[in-house]
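User: Sequence recovery, please. Input:
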């Protein structure tokens, strides 16, 4: 069961990573990076903020919805593999002589698949784009957005967008492959620390034996 819970955590990481990956495409921004390497947090003055029409055009040439739909199709398939592996491992750890029936196994698979789909719908693309639009307005000027529109309309920008699905397809398995073993180690460490707060059966029996009888 712990492995299944851990897989659910990985699903959340995968969804968040894939969404962030889509938005992390901009080749420039209005933020100035100082020598320390951290971006400035200066907010664009109100009279220089891009209009909603500009951002709509930018997101269109960036193919944001198309990119998100591509990610939405890619992530569940990868997570499903992790879920299947977790289910097999969970079944292998059942008490000797205990096995899941085909009906139980199918039922668990159905529930898992349902919640993978639900997880992908927790933050719809339209809502995400609206939220990102507000952030873009705070940190990108009208000139920045016009420059980005020019870039993404150019052959180089279109080539980047065409390459994004392939890049993501190669990158996401790397994320999953590294997160899975690291999350296993972290989960074991967490369970070990939590065990210190749970009395053992021996301690519980001893405590019950020394407890004075009720009057």
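Assistant: Recovered sequence (215 residues):
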């Amino acid at each position: 069961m712990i492995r299944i819970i851990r897989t659910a955590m990985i699903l959340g990481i995968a969804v968040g990573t894939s969404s962030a990956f889509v938005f992390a495409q901009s080749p420039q921004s209005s933020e100035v990076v100082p020598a320390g390497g951290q971006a400035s947090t200066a907010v664009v003055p109100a009279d220089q903020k891009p209009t909603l029409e500009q951002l709509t055009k930018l997101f269109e040439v960036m193919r944001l919805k198309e990119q998100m739909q591509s990610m939405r199709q890619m992530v569940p398939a990868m997570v499903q593999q992790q879920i299947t592996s977790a289910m097999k491992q969970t079944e292998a750890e059942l008490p000797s002589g205990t096995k899941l029936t085909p009906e139980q196994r199918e039922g668990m698979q159905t529930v898992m698949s349902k919640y993978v789909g639900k997880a992908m719908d927790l933050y719809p693309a339209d809502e995400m784009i609206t939220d990102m639009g507000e952030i873009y307005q705070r940190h990108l000027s009208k000139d920045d957005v016009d420059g980005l529109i020019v870039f993404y309309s150019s052959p180089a920008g279109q080539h980047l967008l065409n390459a994004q699905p392939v890049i993501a397809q190669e990158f996401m398995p790397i994320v999953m492959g590294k997160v899975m073993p690291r999350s296993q180690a972290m989960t074991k460490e967490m369970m070990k620390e939590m065990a210190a707060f749970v009395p053992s059966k021996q301690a519980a029996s001893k405590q019950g034996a020394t407890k004075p009888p009720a009057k």
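DSSP finds eight helices and no strands in the chain.
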